[in-house]
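Exercise (ungraded).
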Amino acid sequence: MRDFFSSPTAVVGTTLLVIVLTAALFGPWLAPYDPQTFHPIARLQGPSAAHWLGTDQFGRDLLSRVLNGAPSTVAFGVFATALGVGVGSVIGVIAGVSGGWVDSTIMRILDGLLAVPDLLFTLLIVTMLGGGMEHALLAVAVAFTPGMARIARSAVLSVRTRDYVRAAIARGESGFYIVGCEVLPNALSPIVVEATIRVSFAIMIGATLGFLGLGAQPPSTEWGLMVAEARQFMFRNPWCVAIPGLSIAMAALGFNLFGDALRDALDPRRSH
Amino acid sequence: MTRGYLIRRLLAIFLVLAIVTFAVFAITTVLPGNAAIMILGEYATPDAVAALERQLNLDQPWYMQYFNWVAGILRGDLGTSLRLSLPVSDVVGEAFLNSALLGVTALVAVTVIAIPLGALAALKRGTAVDLAIGLFSYLGTALPEFVTATLLLVFLAAPNSGIFPAGGFVAPWENMSGFAYHVALPAFTLGLILLAHISRQVRSEMAEVLSSDYVRAARLKGLTERRVIRRHALPNSLAPAVAVISLDIGYLLGGIIVVEEIFAWPGLGRLLMYALENRDLPVIQAVTLLLAAVYALSNLVSDIVIAMLDPRVRYA
Amino acid sequence: MTSPLTPAVTETTKAALAIRNYSLSYRTADGIVSALKNIDLTIAKGQTVGLVGESGSGKSSMAWSIMRYLPPNAVETAGAIRLAGEEILDYTPRQMLDIRGRRMAMVFQDPSTSLNPTIRLGEQIAEVLMRHRGLTKVEAMQEAEAALARTGITHPKDMLQRYPHEASGGEKQRVVIATAFACEPELIIFDEPTTALDILTARQILDLFNQLREETNVSALYISHDLGLVSRVVDEVSVLHKGVIVESGKVDDVFRRPKADYTRQLIGAVPNPDRWIGIDAPVNPEPLISLETIGVHYNAPTMLQKIFQPKEAEKAGFWGAKNVSMDVRKGELLGVVGESGSGKSTIAKVLAGLQEFDGKLQFDGKTFASRKDIDRAYRRRVQLVFQHPDASLNPRQTIGTIIGRPLKLYGIVPADKVAARVADLLEMVRLPADYAKRHPHQLSGGEKQRVAIARAFAAEPDLVICDEVTAALDVSVQAAVAELLVKLQKDTGTACVFITHDLNLIRQLAHRIAVMHHGALVDFFDGPDARSDDRDPYTKALLDAVPVHAAAEQSQDMMEGSAR
């Protein structure tokens, strides 16, 4: 662990992640105002002592709205990724372990699905399902599945030819033991790293869907939606688009940096 | 690289596209939601719905619908747009051209900037320059297109004081400077994430090459640093960079949807958003298929470029 | 400690290279780590000096110091390095740029990584000539062709146009050597130039080195871990141990009358074909396992290919082993020898049930005609030890789990006795019992290989296959691992198939030796008959190629002398 925090990437990433997760877990309780209360006399204000981050077009406190939006924004990214990674990994591990025609069939299908850009894939599914947070989450998970399956498969394949796995085969171990005790524990770290980095993409896609009106619906305080609602007024008060926009960037950056640091820390070339 | 290889790769692309047609068809047709009702509105009479369903072949079993659609594509007939009442190929054709102008501008700019930037960071490893480039690339990858676009609009395209137009399109053959003026912000938005990602990849690739035995050997031959970098290190970091760029084209094709929507750029993305809002199924299907085909082809092109850059890669 | 015959002053002025009292350290996270301490080394004009040491001895650091190519965290604490009397420690990086490649050149260990994969070989030689001798591209190419011709490449013009991956290992090393000699430097550093090459190729490169040295009268520093090899190419040798030169002098003196304990230990570890360390041959040879016409076809053509492209299908893939028949006797040690790609490891994989094969395996009255037939009983009785202990031990398991696994899997001991048995096994391979709690990355290479051996013997097998088990280890560790194997064989009566490229080592151990070449078994003989006249020509070539270890022979004399 001391090694982990010796890199600046890890320190910054972890710090951002702690801030973002704190906001996601306790945001609504930390908010100084009610996020939906109008303050007609204080509309589109910049930062002040009363409103640290300013107010939006209805005079609602931006800090309170951002803190209230944190749970839905971050949880969206985490759960969509978890679902996509879970399903994708299972498919990828099955492909990697079985090999032969099972593997090539799965891979051909994945190639086809990967040819459709993530965002396009998500948009198609969300529109057809009819929008909304749950559908958006499902769509992002589906869009992530082929990519994760591919990564899980290659992780399994790279471990499968290691000598310790061959040693287990030579000993006459059961397939169950080989996959469960020899292959998976060693194939797990690239999957975990990729998943962490993907949370940042999921947050970004989720916010994009909110922005396009296909994800969270008003009066939600989801950050992408906040940007969309404030766009009309952005020239009068840039703060009301900048604050939620930069919050998204901060959350994405936190997961991204943390994932990269994790990758470096788990890199076998560094651990010896 | 042999002709046999190219033929096999093209066949593989057709296989991929066949799977894409199926996936698109499945998503657009099988998922709940009646297209005819969507188009006609909730208060349409059952007769009108039935008539439209017949017109759209929605009354046929799904495999017949799929078959008819694919057969149409193979004949070059993408159907008729439900909303615009125009042949899909006409609508999509023009939008594709406009999107290509934006996408290629962004991609070329990114490539030209990202590779030297990444190489510079690798050469100045551990210095302030490296740190600045690293910081920029992390920030770049964490900003979704709609945030970048909105911030750019706020600061560079405000109604009275802005430098750039807030949106719109001018064809380059009509007015080159007008095109440049209009393409700047959308291309920058589209390119930022790619710029960040590609420069980061080039940096790590270049750093690896710089610590390789053969670069050490080149230095120990007394070659000038200039030659070591230009002849030995840089060319060998390019092939992996090309691979990354080709993967990132997939990202760019997704980003183009949001960027065109925000900057009112009359391309495929905007067309797709319009078609999605209006459930214009033939257009949705055509655009999706087209974007997938562009992606698959760009991967093939990148493989060919990689083979030209790296003599070890020989496709038989 | 300068000899009275050669006063320091004249020595320094005359010498091609003189290193005086040189020390080097590295700044690391754990503080300053010393790499070289008070090094004194002199290479006279036209002389070749050997620098011998095991990995981590600092011999590579020495090369980087001389070439002035040190990492930023290097700290040079004291001393002088003089090239023909000039103090190169004082030179600016700019000045060094003109010296490297022109006055000092280097030949590296592995030609497949030290040549740029995307540049034609011709340009890689020519660029030095253009840089240092100001030739035009055309002139440089002509000169490069001549330089290549001097290294004995038959079609130099053709070779210039090739990329590294289109040339063999030996050809690539000739290109590297031609590059080093191209500008007729005063000094060339050879850093293990034959280690990455096959036996026969290594021998040719060594001969080339001797030939070029005579032709050009260049001074050379020859760095190696291989004492026997060094003794054949150098005039003087220095032995480096933990950054300190523990001994130096004329090569004969050092080997005949080693003064330092470490030198003696090193000499003792050099495999000597005449010093038998194996166990006695089994009295009544009984067959344990026999291979009958074993064949392995890699990338074999598929059914479809055979039908549609019968001509191409025939050429598809290659035979890893073809028509190999041999037997292993109970309790013996059978050596399998060959160069890389000879099929020796393929045989190991077949025996361990890791590779699909044609032909038959006979084992204890049972016949196995394919990999799928191989049952768990066979797998228990035939165990495999891999070459790289780093790769063969699961990094996420403890040593205890690793060694205990066969005990549980085959039910060798009851569950509650596993821990005790693991401790016994650790003791058997001379490792402390508390290692059971450690993970593989906390152990050294030699220790890890002992764990792998303990795991194999845990199954109480009848046959242990050792696939190049000593190849990845240092000389002194190699000898210890080989002795451990022999001891375990003596204690347990287990038979062993020992696969190696090291002919000297195998002749110390093996009762019978099989020689493989291009997937075929070309020779099979009793150990003592290695030098007999009816050996296959390939066997003879291999035996002639390995250095006749002058050092080892001398150490033999020495030991006999002291015994008398």
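Further reading is listed at the end of the chapter. For now, observe: Chain C has a mean pLDDT of 87. The longest strand of chain C covers residues 31-43.
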